[in-house]
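User: Predict the structure for this protein chain, please.
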Amino acid sequence: MRVFSIGPASVSESDRAPAQLPAQGLVWIACSQPEFEAGWPPLQQTLQSLCGLQLVDLHVSDLLNAQLPSHFDYTSDYDLLIFRRLATAVVRPERSGPSRQDGKRRSGPPILRHIDTSPVGFAIFERVLLSVHPADCAARDSYAARLLQSAGNEVRIASSRLPESPADLMLRLINQMVDGFLDLRRELTRQLDHWQTELLNPRARFSNWAALLDARLALHQLDEVCEDQRAAMQDWIETVKTWPEAGSPAAERERDLLLVRSRDVLEHIERVVHHVRRLEQSVETAVQIHFNAQSNRTNDIMRTLTVLTAIFLPLNLIAGIFGMNFEFIPLIHEASGFWWAMGAMGLTAVGLALLFWRKRYLARSGR
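Assistant: Here is the predicted structure, written as structure tokens:
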């Protein structure tokens, strides 16, 4: 468990929660799910001493549920937000997501094999933020390092660089989680473009259909995760709008900044949704073009075979006539009869080939 005391221009870290709140600023208690599961009763006592409040039992269950989708809930004393992060962590057997329950390794592009979603819970009190992260959450460690680095600078810290409230800190953490997936857009696009090129290559035979189906299912799952994230953030924004009117210009400005940052996070999530859906459409379009190209190639082959059949059909007729068992057939007893028959067959074949070539029945289709 990591505990941070964040003041107007300073940040300090401790391995245990303070006995009381500082005169200014806020307290951020960040713990992993195993730590929260093993020690949530002492955390309840800590929240009681700091805020005079405790988490509702149902909210404790939500924070312990590793399969819970993103959602928002609130009480008269605190707010609760569950946000599923999007990351490229290695698959964890003990904390597998819904897509890992079958125990099979996901096929497809390497970037899609390692995409995982894990819930991060936030309990937002007036001056305390309790966050419950997965055991290997890089977002918490990364943002904590930034906080400590800012606190170590000799230059005076601007107030805008440090969170002013637990809600502000929560939004900054969520924004970093969403931006972490936005950074994957180039890699996702490169991996799926490779498949599209392979699908549209007329000289390649694509056979990795199982991996392609897994990739489409992975993208669809990401779409659902982002939709839950967007719904949770919209509920949060609506709740912030219903807060009582601020009693001072500073409090009103803080509320406006929360709304601005919330809308910015929501816009980032919508960009993720738009990108995932565009990738899904691109894959679907590539599959349709692939089958259309296969159908066109089949039509070309059948057209060529039909033309060859039409060319050799008259030759078979001539051969069949001269192969009849009649005693008297013209040219049958002539010394040059064979060459006359072969010449007629050759002229017929050449004439039909020229005719079909003029009609573009034998023309090669553009690739």
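The CA atoms of residues 18 and 106 lie 44 Å apart.
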